[in-house]
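Let's study today's protein:

:::
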Amino acid sequence: MTRKSLSGKTALVTGCGRGIGKAIAKTLAQAGADIVINDVDLDAAEKLVKDIESFGGKVLVCCGSVGVIEDVNAMFSKIKSEFKHLDILVNNAGITRDNMLLQMSDQEWDQVMDVNLKGVFYCIRAAAAIMKEQGSGRIVNLTSVTALTGNVGQVNYAASKAGVIGMTKTLAKELARYQIMVNAVAPGFIETPMTESIPDHIKKSIIKGIPLGRAGSSQDVANLVKFLSSDDSSYITGQVISCNGGLYI
């Protein structure tokens, strides 16, 4: 029987109750990893438990917001108690609060920054402390094509995701001495619950601009994250890898 590529590893996937995060958690579990499920929606997190357990791995549910330091501290305390180690961190949790600049409120700006940028900082800081002691680790940050191109009505989201890119490149240099690889994945137009509300005519217009002629799937992103989480990526760090069907080249 072929050994699963992530056997013996523990992975934390933030915001994995649905969409891309859910696909990532299931894909890493299929590859043999034990999974820490994080989401603000306890019902969504608990529904994912059965899927993960069917692959034979251990599961730990940590409900809370990555943008709240108390929630992050509690989550990592549970991880250290349950697993003693953490090999993979996938910073997937993210929100949107879209509005045009002149109508955007301070609250809309702050909410996005708290989750999408500060939350990544909190989780990496806590995870890196564990990984440093181990002398190894993989950190994969989810950014966005919007960070590279900009998008009308998303100045807060684009800024937060661009910040994730800067964080990725900086921490790849800081943490390399501990054999911790830090990379980012920039999805393009992916079919998720978040994109379901986009009117069909707008979806068709976006897809028309994608060289591969289709929207991406959550699984497309999950497969890339699995690679970056595995030993197959042992000489890759500080990179931003697009998963967008050629939308932005």
Observations:
- The helical segments are 19-30, 42-53, 69-82, 106-134, 145-149, 155-175, 200-208, 218-229.
- The mean pLDDT is 95.
- The radius of gyration is 17 Å.
- The domain at 10-243 is CATH 3.40.50.720 (Rossmann fold).
